[in-house]
Amino acid sequence: MHTLPFNTLYWLLALSPIVVVLILMIGFRWSGAKAGPVSWLTAIAVSLAFFGATPSILAYSQLKGLLLTVYVLYIIWMALVLYNVVNEAGAIAVIGRAISRLTGDRVMQLLILSWVFSAFLQGVAGFGVPIAVVAPLLIGMGFEPVTAVVATAIGHSWSVTFGDMASSFQALIAATGLGGLELAPWSALLLGLTCFGCGLAAVHAHDGLKALRHSLPAILIVGTLMSGTQYLLATSGLWNLAGFVAGMVGLLAGAVVARLPLYRAPPQSPPTLGGKLCSASATSTVDRAEGHLSLPLALAPYLLLIVLVTAAELYGPLHEFLNNVVIAIRFPGLRTAYGWTIEAGPGRTISVFGHPGALLAYTSVIACFLYRRSGHYRVGVLRRITANTLRSAVPSSIGIASLVGMALVMDHSGMTYLLAESISRSVGAAFPLFSPLIGVLGAFMTGSNTNSNVVFAPLQKQAAELIGISVFIILGAQTTGGSLGSMLAPAKVIVGCSTAGLAGREGEILKRTLLPGLLIAVCVGIVAWLAIYLT
Length: 535
Prior knowledge:
- This protein is mainly α and 535 residues long.
- It has one domain.
- Helices cover 75% and strands 2% of the residues.
- The chain is built from 21 helices and 6 strands.
- Strands 1-6 form a two-stranded antiparallel sheet.
- Helix 4 crosses helix 12, helix 12 runs antiparallel to helix 14 and helix 15 runs parallel beside helix 18.
- The longest helix has 56 residues.
- The chain starts with 7 loop residues before the first helix and ends with a helix.
């Protein structure tokens, strides 16, 4: 039996690492790479001085954290490599231009690009890539710059959890120790509902209620197909594919819907990329790509990825072959001075050759060979792919690694449990209403749904267990809130402003995304509450 002290002082001490992150990232505008290590050191100091942690507990917690970090970063790094491999050939520009030619209807153009195409890009790479690529496309088509950034920030956020090869969902699995098949149904259902909200909010940012009425049939048709595809894949165990396949289905559906009489209008001239793209997309030569890269060839790597992931998951002999080599460490049981116990058991297991990151790596190699043989690469392509990947991934990796370390120190010392117990006592049955807002806060302060899940999912899990309500609904609300928080995260807002030529106007963007983001999160909380208490 543990004897953790439940009083105001210890509650504030347990909260202090999270407060440090908030103050440094929001108050002082530090990056996650700078604020993360400080919060990690704060957690270590507090756990040693006040929560009875021992050096062995800290050492084992950080080794577990290392495994979890490698598991998540394996996906993130390889997803960025694939994005840069494809982008260097000009494939992203070709896909974007093809979409812009589907219809001359302004609302449909904005909807397909800011809501559907951005979701597809989130499925491929994440890390602000949708805003960096789509906002300049919209500006080049004549959309007002602030609207272009706001609509894309809102439009892509529903797809964050299962985007980037489900790296945020993998973090949710790793941080809670629960199975993906158990977590997927409620996560996919709540995210599917937000899909409609994000589409409506994106077009409302363009032209208010008039645009809402005009786009409603398209949003219902395309949103149902995208959210349904994501749900089916996620609940079938193919959550690695759920995000970007949903985006691809959305693109196909959007192409069909754009031909309906309601949205039929003469296609406009091809857009010119406006603004300066971020490092992830700055190397595309649009004119060169437009000249002779076909749309099927541009889409080929993603079709190949679907085949590889499906075969690796569903074809037994291949699945067994790829997962023969694993990194697995079993940890002993531990106990703090206050009697807080960590059960013995394995840490996060990593399949070296069957991991989603490995499948992304295989796809990247084949795609690179394909584009090189077909003459779509310029001299120095490997150097640019490497440089762009490092520039995007290194700072985020430092932040993720330190926040994972912080979260596991808090968990192993009993700090997370104390916070969860305090929350459960304070809000009780109303907790589901607040759960998505906690996820929003996590993404807002860290710039990442992955980090939000790492920091807050264990807390939400323990709070749900203490209250006696469904852990899976609460964790679904957590990761849905974390996805929505992406539209409010200062780090992503800054990316959007820099690529759209709006440096210095970040506050204006945040002001216009704040209300829809919080409104959708509140709706998710109400749905979660109803699901728990009325079913």
